[in-house]
Amino acid sequence: MVIIYWRFNWKRFYEIFLENIRWKIQQLSLTYHSLTFNTHMSKNYAIDCLLEPVFWFVDNFAGYLGKVFVFCVTILTFAVVAIAYWIGLPYWWERNGYMTVFLVIVGNWLLINILFHYYMGVVTSPGHPPHGAMIAEAASICKKCISPKPPRTHHCSVCDKCVLGMDHHCPWLNNCVGYFNARYFFLYMVYMVAGVTFLIVFGIDIGYQVLWVNDSPGTGELIDDPDLIGHPVRLNKSGVFVPVKDSALYDEINFPRQHILPTPLITEAQRISAHTWKRKAVVFMAITCVSVLVALGTLVIMHSKNISCGETSVEAHINKEMKKRNKNFRNPYNYGRRKNWRLFLGLTQNRTFLIHVLFPSRHKPKGTGLTWHSINNALKDWP
Ligand SMILES: [Zn+2]
Ligand SMILES: [Zn+2]
């Protein structure tokens, strides 16, 4: 007699069960994708769709906002300069006359460079491809302008134009940064960073004295009120300190006329601390200068990196993507760091750093911005 035992194989059952579930999930996923598949659909397209309201806002209002921004930059710059003269000048004059003259010269050199490069950045056209002209090197057609697009040209949706060597649209300049004004834009930022660093370095002691040392005056109203400083005081009937400026008003008992009162030595820093508006101005300067230093300092570092690599901000983004796809990709406009900087600053045709960068200069970059040498066809002695 044979006895048959039935043994249930749990392991096998579990495997089959899992396989079935997996298969069902795949089936559902395939069904979903077959119903929703779109060849034009990609992550970038989805992001573009989601950002559509932002694009709409930029397209319609960036023009107006740009004007407001330029106005704000101008007002802010003049406010900072005015405060530097109002507070910084007397402070340094009291300390050292020669140093003050030196600071005024350096400060004004920075100011002239800031104003010049900002103004030129705002009014100089970045360069646009000519309409209706043949451009032999045109790499593609702009979908929005329906016209040939030279290499390194990109369409700006705010300006609604193609821009040569486009870097980005700058609302602070109310202008596109491109081939013909990129140098002005960059040097404006550099001089601005230098300017606020200058103010911070030579104003830090004022800030320290005003906001730290004289922050909590123990004598209350006496220190806060500039009218009381340097004068003997007496209490009036309401118990408020009032200055005694005229010796005839001295109280004969408490302040005999013959008594010579010691006059405390008042420093300019104490005078600033005691002046409500000067104190507020110092706080304003501290906040403004540090914010500008952080914001523009970061931008200068980013742009310097791009210039060293011979790419615009747009290209930096594109080239990064290209390198991800193809490890052998090389930026065709990277001629080496030294040459990239010389081309960017327009230091060709015997121009010098001393005259053409350290002082305002209206020289244009070499070339038209329409055609470009690439590393494959660059001439050895170019530029
Ligand atoms: Zn275009
Ligand atoms: Zn633009």
Which characteristics define this entry?
54% helix, extended, binds zinc ion, mainly alpha, 383 residues, 11 helices, two-stranded antiparallel sheet
SS content category: mainly alpha
| % residues in beta strands | 5-15%
Mean pLDDT metric = 85
User: What small-molecule ligands were found?
Assistant: zinc ion
The total count of strands amounts to 8
User: How far apart are the termini?
Assistant: 103 Å
Instruction: Please state the overall shape, judged from the principal axes of the Cα atoms.
Output: extended
Subcellular location: Membrane
Transmembrane segments: 64-87, 99-120, 185-204, 281-302
Membrane topology: Multi-pass membrane protein
Domain Palmitoyltransferase DHHC: 138-204
Report what the structure shows.
InterPro entries: Palmitoyltrfase_DHHC, PFA4/ZDH16/20/ERF2-like. It is found in: Membrane. The structure is a single chain. With 383 residues, the protein is mostly helical. It has one domain (53-256, 265-358). The protein has helices spanning 10-36, 43-50, 52-95, 97-123, 182-213, 221-224, 268-274, 276-308, 313-325, 337-344, 353-356; strands spanning 140-141, 148-149, 154-156, 161-163, 168-170, 175-177, 233-235, 241-243. Strands 1-2 form a two-stranded antiparallel sheet. The protein has a two-stranded antiparallel ribbon with strand order 3-4. β1 (140-141) and β2 (148-149) form a beta hairpin. α4 (97-123) packs antiparallel against α5. Mean pLDDT is 85; it is low at 217-223. Residues 142, 144-145, 155, 162 line the site of one zinc ion. One zinc ion binds next to loops.
